Amino acid sequence: MSAPHAAPCLRLDALGKDFGTTRALDTVDLDIAEGELFCLLGGSGCGKSTLLRVVAGLEAPSRGRVLIDGRDVSAVPPWQRPVNLVFQSYALFPHLSVAANVAFGLRQENMPRAAIARRVADMLGLVRLEHLADRRPRQLSGGQRQRVALARALVKQPRLLLLDEPLAALDRQLRETTRLELVRIQRELGTTFVMVTHDQEEALSLATRIGVMADGRLLQSGAPHDVYERPANRFVAEFVGNANLLEVDVTTHDDAGVLLGSDLCSTPLRAAAASATRAGRAWLLLRPEQVTLAHADVPTAGVGDNALAGVIEDIAYGGDRWVYAIRLANGVRWRVSEPNAAHRAHADLTRGVAVTLRWPPGCGVVLAQ
Fold first, then answer.
1. What's the pTM value of the predicted model, to 2 decimals?
2. What angle (nearest 5°) sits at the alpha carbon of residue 269, between those of residues 267 and 270?
3. What is the C-alpha separation between 153 and 163, in angstroms, rounded?
């Protein structure tokens, strides 16, 4: 692992990028520390791939700066930056063997043959492909091709590795396996990875930190559990995971939490965390796994539990869990997720049954409108 640096490995300072009249990046400020596996998460057209290309030097910023280890590289051409990029298509040379693909960049630098051979062998061992060194890319699976592309990028020992949707072309089962390999390789090398993805599950399971983007702006960055459990706004709440949202009135707040009024219940609801600190209209966010179900006429609440009435509209089996679609009295549809054991405990909850949705006051986050 490289020696620690005082400056962040990557700093984006008020970064902006325009394509004609279209603003693709809008004043992005971000620090990424050495050794992080940072995921940029967002939908199509949010600016995440443009940001990656600006960092790589494939696009020039319209405003702001890109700094690597404290050095401004905004005007430095891509081949002079300590950066490498893994494309979604992998871009392997079909006429070269696995070993020759990995060695390509080192040969371009005129490194001695013996040194190239040692480094290529080390890298193929790292990605567990040494037994396939003589194969051509067409003879490999999708996951193996992805690891060849990763080895080719890492063999030059970049300070920063950029990955543009590297797992998008793989099927679900292979993608999950390759995720684990990607995390293992990153941890063993300690290289800083910046990865672009639209897949929230991928970002949550891979990243040390996540940055959520929309409309060219970075809306929130933080550890995966922080972004999921304490989203900064409604967009982040709905994009990262499944969100149940209820419009409420913030009435009072204190050290114990916040009291909320709702037209759906006569008693106030309580939430433990609030980003909306002023009185007025707000959103209460609850994740599907935070809510439990019971027959409407069965008093199973804990002391101080919040409760809402609803009717089961649909039920779906998800393998390790069951998912209920619940229609509230105001027509809003909520989602409740329960593991199989909980579902078996009240299997008589079927479509059309009136239920009570309950959650403890420690759950729920209040978001400003």
1. 0.87
2. 135
3. 10
Strand 321-328 versus strand 333-339 pairing type:
antiparallel
Percentage helix, strand, coil for the chain under 3-state DSSP, each rounded to 5:
30, 35, 35
Of 255, 257, 279, the residue nearest 269 (C-alpha): 257
Q: Are 159 and 3 in contact, with CB atoms under 8 Å apart?
A: no
Amino acid at 67: L
Number of neighbours of residue 114 by Cβ within 10 angstroms = 8
Task: Give me the amino acid identity at 329.
Answer: A
The answer to whether the beta carbons of residues 330 and 264 sit under 8 Å apart is yes
Cβ atoms 244, 269 nearer than 8 A: no
Q: Please state, in angstroms and rounded to a whole number, the distance separating the CA atoms of residues 228 and 104.
A: 41
Strand 354-359 and strand 306-317: the pairing is antiparallel
pLDDT digits (tens, 9 = 90+) for 102-133: 999 899 888 899 999 999 999 899 888 999 99
Per DSSP, the three-state class of 295 is: strand
Tokens describing residue 50: 């443009």
Whole-number Å distance between alpha carbons of 329 and 306: 16
